[in-house]
Amino acid sequence: MGIYRIAYYSTPHPTLTSDDIEAILKVARSRNADLKLSGVLLHVFGQFIQLLEGPVASIETVMNSIVRDTRHSDIHIFLKQSGSTRSFERWAMWSDYLGGDLTEAEARERDILQQSALKALAELDRQAAIRDVAAPAEAVPLKYH
Ligand SMILES: Cc1cc2nc3c(=O)[nH]c(=O)nc-3n(C[C@H](O)[C@H](O)[C@H](O)COP(=O)(O)O)c2cc1C
């Protein structure tokens, strides 16, 4: 059966504690196992980066919950793919937060995911900088009193 992959980064709510993240992972692992989803959740550079892989209907179900979850905001999807193999078959939701031994191939996929997210973040910053430079007068109205 074909699988689908989706990845996003988001900004954790500033009051989120380590207990909150553990609670997210507990629910994620149990629900993902039921829905035959696998993936990783990274918490790096003040961002969440998550990859989900599995049947498209399951991804839609879980993403519907995730985008409405107020424990994070500014969700940017930077990867959507279909394929036939999973990268994190053994993990209902691996997390850098809780750890767990990744195979070399899994660790490589995690690094690629992190790099892709950072590239997407940098591109967003670059576009914001271009907009700021293009419209300085509007961004900073000059006032002489
Ligand atoms: C960063 C982040 C990642 C999450 N990842 C998952 C996940 O992989 N699977 C999952 O079932 N819930 C995940 N959740 C929790 C869901 O948003 C939601 O609370 C949970 O699935 C219960 O769904 P419901 O609120 O629609 O009842 C995540 C939440 C956050 C903030």
Automatic annotation (TrEMBL):
BLUF domain segment(s)? 3-94
- Give the Gene3D superfamilies listed for this entry: 3.30.70.100
List, alphabetically, the SUPFAM superfamilies matched: Acylphosphatase/BLUF domain-like
A GO molecular function assigned to this protein is: FAD binding
Which residues are listed as membrane-spanning? Answer: none
Tell me which positions the record assigns to the signal sequence: none
User: Can you name this protein?
Assistant: BLUF domain-containing protein
Q: What is the lineage of its organism?
A: Bacteria, Pseudomonadati, Pseudomonadota, Alphaproteobacteria, Hyphomicrobiales
